[in-house]
Specification:
The complex is a heterodimer of chains A (352) and B (260). Chain A is built from nine helices and 21 strands. Chain A is of the alpha+beta class and 352 residues long. In chain A, the strands form four sheets. Chain A has a six-stranded mixed sheet with strand order 7-8-9-3-10-11, with helices on both faces. A five-stranded antiparallel sheet of chain A has the order 2-1-4-5-6, with helices on one face. Chain A has a five-stranded antiparallel sheet with strand order 14-13-12-15-21. In chain A, α2 packs parallel to α4. The longest helix of chain A is centred in the middle third of the chain and has 17 residues. Chain A is elongated. Chain B is mainly alpha-helical. Chain B is 77% helix and 0% strand. The chains are: A alpha+beta (352), B mainly alpha (260). The interface between A and B is medium-sized, with 25 and 18 residues.
């Protein structure tokens, strides 16, 4: 079974133009900054937002195709959704929340409750069947929401930031559970997240959305190793530069400055990535290798565990990650004038 | 040293509060408690009690049937003329009820705008119990519509999306999600609407007249008796209406008496 979608939604202030194709048993993660169009895309697949043009097709059945006048309303799509903030019905108990979709399909009350109780057992919450949503913890509510979406046995499961509302400790635990439950769900899975860890742990394939368009697709590893948007690079904690490469491995950066790579480089538009740990900071101009050395000024020093992230303004501006020893040795404080050095072997260049 | 409470506004406030309290005290003080049962037992007062219950409950029922969809449309549908409809909905709350009665007469009376055609198919509203119900609905329905509209407006639409994604059609979503979400406001609105219908005087007497057992509701009965034969009956039935008002107030205390 495959879900294919060419999604074009034109709103007043925003246009979404994206496509995806997911096979059953696969999890696709939609990532991107707020306002990139992730939720709009999910709503289009669920039928909660009609397409302006394009086509959504599930296993040969067209769900939405404006040019042919086809639009299947959400209640008749085999799609289960785990919404942001869970959106459990506050006036119904956990078991009745899970039974809701079954009841809507005309299944009798007692049978719906029995089936729903079975789903609560699978997510380990059978003892909370009678609890109202406000009596559940964030992690429990999230599991009820998952059970509710799965109870109708949909062909497609959509999850909108399923872990966003949870605190850090619960998050890891629920993420592990979610991974297990997703692996037992045989259908198509689409997950929205802004957390690269979620994407890496839960997804087989990542689509990066930016301002209503697909900026990048690939495996989670590819995306973090070779980001194409500043947003992903920031999340992955790396420095991303756009620029133009010449045949002699020099990359003239858009924001000014030149980086020289040790690898062969295809001339033309490229991205260059530098990991912050590969950035060395010196008090004065370093001896030796004259390549990839430039002056700058420290604008921020931020503690990160036993290391420090240092923001340096220059051409180009860059983030370095150094040990506390280096901070003291070089005397890194806001406003300090320093020299930045990066080995050519640490500069990863790839075509844009 | 703590601030001393200034005297002048406190005195004025006390006079203001007394304005509310004194009439109640007067009513309780003058009440002919001994003859209460005799008064309540007379045919005329029992007619008025029964009629008031029937008409006010009918008016509330009609207000629910018409007002729930009206409130929903006003909260959820964008259409030209929406502000005009909102103004019309609120109008009966500020309009002198007697003017409402005159207007109803001109619209639904025998020679009225709609009354003529209605008359020719055998529907007569003025000076009938049905007419009293119409007058009460006209005056009381805004309380339900406004309360509900605000609730529909503030309820979380995403919950309805969630229900639809689970396979519920629009009607089922409305019945199982939308209505339960606004239940407290629905009850408050319906109770307020009923209380207003029960106390309706001006529009009723103008449009439906004052016929014992047909259109003479409690407030009309009280007014007539106070002016005429039996002021005691007027006082006792006033107390009945007062008691109803107090019960309404107490039952809605979470809705109206707690400042949030």
């Amino acid at each position: 079974m495959t879900l294919t979608a060419q999604i074009h939604v034109a709103l007043e202030q925003f246009t979404l133009d994206a496509e995806l194709s997911v096979a059953s048993g696969q999890t696709i993660a939609l990532v991107g900054p707020n306002g990139a169009g992730k939720t709009t895309m999910l709503h289009a697949i669920a039928g909660l937002r009609a397409l302006t043009s394009g086509r959504i097709e599930l296993d040969g059945v067209v769900l939405d195709e404006p040019s042919r006048g086809v639009y299947v309303p959400p209640e008749r799509r085999p799609v289960g959704v785990v919404f942001q903030d869970n959106l459990l019905f506050p006036h119904l108990s956990a078991v009745d929340n899970v039974a809701y979709g079954l009841r809507a399909r005309g299944i009798g009350r007692s049978q719906a409750r029995t089936t729903a109780t079975g789903w609560l057992e699978r997510v380990g919450l059978e003892r909370h069947a009678a609890a109202r949503p406000h009596q559940l913890s964030g992690g429990q509510a999230q599991r009820v929401a998952l059970a509710r979406a799965l109870a109708t046995e949909p062909a497609v499961l959509l999850l909108d930031e399923p872990l966003a509302a949870l605190d850090a400790t619960t998050r890891n635990e629920v993420r592990r559970d979610l991974r297990r439950h997703l692996s037992t769900f045989a259908g198509v899975r689409v997950l929205i997240t802004h957390d690269p860890i979620d994407a890496a742990v839960l997804a087989d394939h990542v689509i990066v959305l930016d301002d209503g368009e697909v900026a990048q697709t690939g495996s989670p590893e590819e995306i973090t190793r070779h980001p194409r948007t500043r947003w992903v690079a920031d999340l992955a904690g790396t420095n991303l530069f756009g620029g133009v490469a010449s045949a002699d491995r020099h990359v003239a950066l858009d924001e000014g400055g030149v980086l020289v790579s040790a690898d062969e480089v295809t001339p033309g538009r490229v991205f260059a990535v530098v990991h912050p740990r590969a950035v060395a900071i010196h008090r004065s101009r370093p001896e030796g290798s004259p390549r990839n050395t430039w002056p700058g000024r420290v604008t921020a020093v931020e503690r990160l565990g036993d290391r420090f992230r240092v923001q340096i303004d220059g051409q180009p501006s860059i983030v370095a990650e150094v040990t506390s020893g280096a901070v003291q040795e070089v005397g890194l404080t806001d406003g300090a004038d320093v020299w930045v050095a990066v080995k050519a072997t640490e500069i990863d260049v790839y075509p844009a | 040293m703590p601030d001393r409470v200034p005297l002048v506004p406190v005195v004025i406030a006390a006079i203001g509060a007394a304005l509310f309290a004194l009439p109640l005290a007067g009513l309780l003080w003058r009440a002919p408690w001994a003859s209460a049962w005799d008064v309540l037992g007379t045919e005329a007062s029992r007619d008025a009690l029964r009629l008031s219950l029937v008409t006010s409950l009918s008016a509330t029922g009609i207000a629910i049937v018409l007002g729930v969809p009206l409130a929903w449309v006003q909260a959820r549908v964008e259409y030209p003329g929406k502000r005009l409809v909102r103004a019309l909905t609120i109008l009966p709350m500020v309009l002198p009820p007697v003017v409402g009665g005159v207007a109803l007469l001109l619209a639904l009376g025998r020679r009225g705008l709609v009354g003529g055609p209605l008359d020719s198919i055998g529907v007569h509203l003025p000076f009938t119990t049905a007419g009293a119900v119409v007058a009460e609905t006209f005056v009381a329905m805004p309380f339900l519509v406004l309360t509900l509209e605000a609730a529909f407006r503030s309820s979380d639409l995403r919950l309805e999306d969630a229900a639809r994604s689970l396979g519920a059609g629009r009607l089922r979503v409305f019945r199982t999600i939308t209505l339960p979400m606004v239940r407290p406001s629905f009850i408050a609105g319906a109770v307020l609407c009923w209380a207003r219908a029960l106390g309706e005087f001006g529009a009723t007497i103008t449009f439906a007249g004052n016929l014992q057992g047909t259109t003479q509701t409690l407030p009309l009965f009280v007014y007539i008796k106070l002016e005429g034969s039996s002021p005691d009956a007027a006082i006792i039935l006033s107390l009945v209406l007062l008691a109803v008002s107090l019960v309404v107030l107490v039952s809605l205390r979470d809705h109206w008496l707690v400042l949030r």
